[in-house]
């Protein structure tokens, strides 16, 4: 979530964007964001374009962790790529894309 929000720091990110990106229900997103808010990682506020929608913004505390999160993701990706040949990675990527699309239906 920190990575997702950090990569979109110049955009307005609404709770519904998070629900769509992670394919989770509104109630799940609400609980997750409430926990992140209590821990000081995000702030939720009414969106300027629609007061019914909640805009989600990273706090300075979360921005400070952003580099660590990115490094962790990059290291994990490197480990996966080292363990599989390019042909195997192509198959894995194809399978993941298939499952992602199937779950969005």
Strand content: 5-15%
The low-confidence parts are none
CATH-level-4 superfamily name: Winged helix-like DNA-binding domain superfamily/Winged helix DNA-binding domain
The name of the CATH architecture is Orthogonal Bundle
Mean pLDDT value: 93
Q: How many E strands?
A: 2
Strand order of the largest sheet: 1-2
Rough outline: globular
Rg for CA atoms: 16 Å
Order of helices and strands: HHHEEHH
Return the structural class: mainly alpha
Distance between the termini: 22 Å
Helicity level: 55-70%
Largest β sheet strand count, sense and barrel closure: 2 strands, antiparallel
Q: Could you walk me through the main structural features you see in this protein, from its secondary elements to its overall organization?
A:
- By secondary structure, the chain is mainly α.
- The chain has five helices and two strands; from the N terminus they run αααββαα.
- It has a single domain (2-104), classed as Winged helix-like DNA-binding domain superfamily/Winged helix DNA-binding domain (Arc Repressor Mutant, subunit A, Orthogonal Bundle), CATH 1.10.10.
- It has a two-stranded antiparallel sheet.
- Strand 1 and strand 2 form a beta hairpin.
- Helix 2 packs across helix 3 (26-38).
- The chain is globular, with a radius of gyration of 16 Å.
- The two termini are 22 Å apart.
- The mean pLDDT is 93.
């Amino acid at each position: 979530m920190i990575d997702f929000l950090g990569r979109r720091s110049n955009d307005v990110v609404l709770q519904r964007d998070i629900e769509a990106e992670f394919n989770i229900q509104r109630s799940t997103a609400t609980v997750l964001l409430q926990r992140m808010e209590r821990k000081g990682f995000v702030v939720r506020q009414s969106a300027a374009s629609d007061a019914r929608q909640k805009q989600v913004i990273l706090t300075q505390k979360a921005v400070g962790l952003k580099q660590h999160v990115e490094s962790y993701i990059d290291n994990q990706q490197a480990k996966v790529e080292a363990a599989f040949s390019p042909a195997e990675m192509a198959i894995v990527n194809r399978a993941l894309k298939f499952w992602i699309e199937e779950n969005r239906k």
